[in-house]
Design a protein that fits this description.
heterodimer; A: about 350 residues; alpha/beta; ten-stranded mixed sheet; 12 helices; about 30% helix; globular; B: about 120 residues; mainly beta; Immunoglobulin-like; 2 domains; four-stranded antiparallel sheet; three-stranded mixed sheet; 1 helix; about 10% helix
Chain lengths: ~350, ~120
């Protein structure tokens, strides 16, 4: 009874948040250049990206007008890529974000993250970081496409774990190869004092044609049980925000599932496109900073993000869980918008 | 419904749904929100013998070993985690290139509100 009341309250809360749509979390895809060739990459990254890096001033000028609507220190800019450390001006850009009132963080594969780089970024006011670690040595290197990725990531893990200033965590993309070593990866992350988020790999980007990257339904359920058990042991481990997990909600992460794309989360992509999470299909793009005012776009567009009734289609049309999941994560919809690509709840509960 | 009422509704619904994570979240693959406090420590380093600013001095916050090097105008600037006091070490980092200076340790009590000025003793 209490749980039903809480779930109902959360639904109203979520609807209210969609109306308020306070921007709290802003991705900046600062480059499409990358120093790895990951098998599961959801971006269009390449070592010689045809899209040039966005000049920092273009990004800053686009977001400065947000002060008309929000306190800037209520917004964190998450710099992503590609690999953001490919940009030599990253620390300088971060310092200027802080000077202008924004907090900032990065997502990195750790290849270029060493002691000197960490020092430089901290000096510039870095406050948050996410590191990718997708397995023990062989499997991390397999997914990342190079024999040195694991050693570099481990070095970054040690450095990040030693810095209490950083709000940090580790992201692990669970797949067929690393599934059996989840326990060891989790212990490794825990030993370094960091929290961990587990993702499954979505059938988008480079991943969609590689069956080794996807879990079976049984493995998906086993992973949920694993997270529940590890959390009981005191590990700070959670399932990502990628999808609704039905009976596992609140057991595998803090709070209920809430895809905040376009509600609390916005993005400016490398070509100037205005969207939400960078892995959401390009058909959801709402404008471009080189043509539109970012703040105006955020305040007046994004209707499909804030009212998800259009997602009541395909397997979602008659689903009783829709009122809780709202069509699952928005990155799981393509331009046709006729069927969600993955239903986590169905995958887990059909067993 | 007005904006004001929606904000009141936010507080009420947030409370009754007992969710600890309403505004602490991470987007897909994104980094955590930054919930910690830090401060800027900045200043200038000068020579006691010439009164000129000194480039190439390593300024270390000894609690965490975070450091910064003074620039061509002897200035330094870094964000540090919030502490009660700030023990700083000033070391000559470039041999004799910009003159030679003795290492100097000091503790800044409380939060430095203004840029600090440090004078280092130049060695012959």
């Amino acid at each position: 009874m209490l749980n039903r009341f809480r779930k109902a309250s959360f639904r109203h809360f979520r609807e209210n948040e969609a109306q308020l749509h306070d921007l709290m979390y802003l991705f900046w895809e600062c480059t499409l250049r990358c120093n790895l060739n990951c098998l599961h990459c959801g971006s269009d990254c390449s070592k010689d990206a045809s899209v040039p890096d966005m000049p920092f001033d273009d990004f800053l000028n686009a977001i400065l007008p947000l002060h008309k609507h929000y306190k800037r220190d209520a917004i964190i800019v998450i710099i992503t890529g590609g690999e953001p450390l490919m940009r030599k001006d990253l620390a300088e850009n971060g310092r200027r974000l802080r000077e202008n009132g924004f907090r900032w963080g990065i997502v990195t594969n750790g290849i270029l993250y060493d002691k000197e780089k960490q020092n430089e970024l901290l000096n510039a006011g870095l406050g948050s970081i996410t590191l990718s670690l997708d397995g023990l040595e062989d499997n991390h290197n397999w997914l990342r496409g190079t024999s040195v990725a694991y050693k570099k990531a481990l070095n970054a893990l040690e450095l990040i774990g030693s810095q209490k200033r950083l709000n940090a965590d580790v992201v692990t993309c669970v797949n067929q190869r690393n599934f059996s070593e989840l326990d060891k990866i989790s212990d490794l992350v825990h030993q370094h004092g960091l929290s961990q988020r587990l993702f499954t790999i979505s059938p988008i980007g480079r991943a969609k044609d590689n069956p080794e990257l996807f879990l079976t339904n049984a493995q998906m359920k086993e992973m949920m049980d694993f997270i529940v058990e590890k959390r009981k042991e005191g590990h700070e481990i959670s399932f990502s925000c990628e999808g609704y997990t039905g009976k596992y909600e609140e057991q595998v992460r803090e709070g209920f599932f809430f895809c905040r794309a376009g509600i609390h989360i916005g993005s400016i992509l490398a070509d100037g496109s205005i969207g939400a999470c960078p892995n959401i299909d390009h058909s959801f793009v709402q404008g471009n900073i080189y043509k539109d005012d970012f703040a105006d776009v955020w305040m007046s567009r994004f209707q499909d993000f804030r009212n998800r009734s259009w997602a009541r289609t395909g397997i979602c049309a008659d689903c009783k869980e829709f009122k809780y999941c709202n069509g699952n994560g928005l990155h799981l919809w393509d331009e046709k918008r006729d069927e969600v690509l993955v239903c986590h709840h169905r995958r887990i509960s059909d067993l | 419904m007005s904006l004001r009422w929606r904000k009141i509704k936010r507080k009420v619904l947030g409370f009754v749904s007992f969710s600890a994570a309403l505004f602490i979240f991470q987007a897909c693959y994104g980094a955590p929100q930054d919930t910690q406090s830090d401060i800027i420590v900045q200043g200038t380093v000068k020579s006691d013998s010439t009164g000129q600013t000194v480039e190439g001095i390593k300024v270390t916050f000894t609690e965490t070993d975070q450091y910064v090097i003074t620039d061509s105008s002897g200035a330094f600037y870094f964000y540090l985690p919030e502490y009660n006091n700030y023990p700083l070490r000033f070391e000559d980092n470039d041999s004799t290139e910009n003159g030679s200076f003795n290492t100097f340790d000091t503790i800044i009590q409380g939060t430095p509100a203004a840029p600090i000025e440090i004078t280092l003793r130049q060695t012959p």
